[in-house]
Amino acid sequence: MVVASAPGKVILLGEHAVVYGEPAIATAIDLRTRVRATRRAAGSGTIVNGYPLTPAYHTHLVHALDVAAEAIGAPLADVAFETESRIPSAAGLGSSAALTTATLAAVLALAGATKDEEHLARLAYEVEWRAQGGRGSPTDTSTVAHGRAVLVDRDARERLLWTVKRGERTWHLHHLDAPAVSIVIGNTQERGRTTDQVAKVAKLVAKSGFAKEIVKDVGKSTRDGIDALRAGDWPRLGRAMDRAHNSLTTLGVSTPRLDQFCETARKAGALGAKLTGSGGGGSMIALAKDPERVAAALAKHRAQTFVVALGAEGARVEEGP
Ligand code: MEV
């Protein structure tokens, strides 16, 4: 038996634009997914929380088993998985990346083939790539595998972790010390599907020069945010978040509720607020000196709120094999 866990994540700046080579900053958060994997008798099949493994319901798990089997060169069957998560699903908080990465860590350890975090990040990205129909960047999976915080850039800089290439794109993933701040998450509880939002933006970018400019604007806000982080200038980081939210709204991935949450957070004293992750529902994040006050204001609008520290530990095997 093996138990592995992985954290959720928030994208502080750069979602969607990172798919097109602009930079992004993402950090792991202290909400985790745990996966317990136990071998079953040969021929008895694989089950998940007591039910047979079904591709329609367990897309990421099915791809994770395939990718892990390819990595070790042997089939992986007859496993009982039990999953437990504090990360709400389809909320822009990395629940799929966490489930994928924790599952990979668990089955690889069960097969006696534990991988380092770089290997795990690469395999997890392969799973997400397949699950998302061949789209998306390695931001979520690398953040969840490495933990702490990650800077994604088209240029390699200091503290490079690894480089990922897919088609004409190259992403350099760097370690970043997580900013010593708490942030407020407001989950709209409207489900946003990453695959749909990424496909929608891809369509827009393919046909509109204006959309390409907006993607570059998101990149500019991210660069400004990176400088603000280096200088510890939180008001400037907040302003970069506000600008990024406006650009993402123009790209069509915000919703009225996400906009309302951002307004509410700002009125309650947040230095900045924006949607996080793929949008189309999901969550907003706010940077605030008094996070509890912002969380209380959001709760009045029926948000599911979390005040989280940034920079949680990455994927790890907790028990076994
Ligand atoms: C989703 O958390 C982040 C996106 O930028 C997609 C990706 O990078 O793969 C929207």
| Broad shape | globular
Give the fraction of residues assigned to helices.
Answer: 25-40%
Main pleated sheet:
9 strands, mixed
Write out the distinct hetero groups bound to the structure: (R)-mevalonate
N- and C-termini, Cα separation: 6 Å
> What structural category characterises the helix and strand content?
alpha+beta
Count of runs of 4 or more consecutive helical residues: 9
Radius of gyration: 19 Å
Task: Please give a quick description of this structure.
With 321 residues, this protein is an alpha+beta fold. Strands 1, 2, 3, 4, 5, 6, 7, 8 and 13 form a nine-stranded mixed sheet that branches. Helix content is 40%, strand content 26%.
Characterization of the model:
The protein is α+β, with helices and mostly antiparallel strands and 321 residues long. 40% of the residues lie in helices and 26% in strands. Helix 3 runs antiparallel to helix 4 (139-146). The mean pLDDT is 96.
List the helices and strands and how they pair.
Layout: E1 2-13, E2 24-39, E3 47-48, E4 51-52, H1 59-72, E5 79-85, H2 95-110, H3 117-131, H4 139-146, E6 149-153, E7 160-166, E8 169-176, E9 182-187, H5 194-207, H6 209-231, H7 234-250, H8 256-267, E10 272-276, E11 283-287, H9 291-299, E12 304-309, E13 316-319
Parallel strand pairs: 3-5
Antiparallel strand pairs: 1-2, 1-13, 2-5, 2-6, 3-4, 6-8, 7-8, 9-11, 9-12, 10-11
The structure holds (R)-mevalonate.
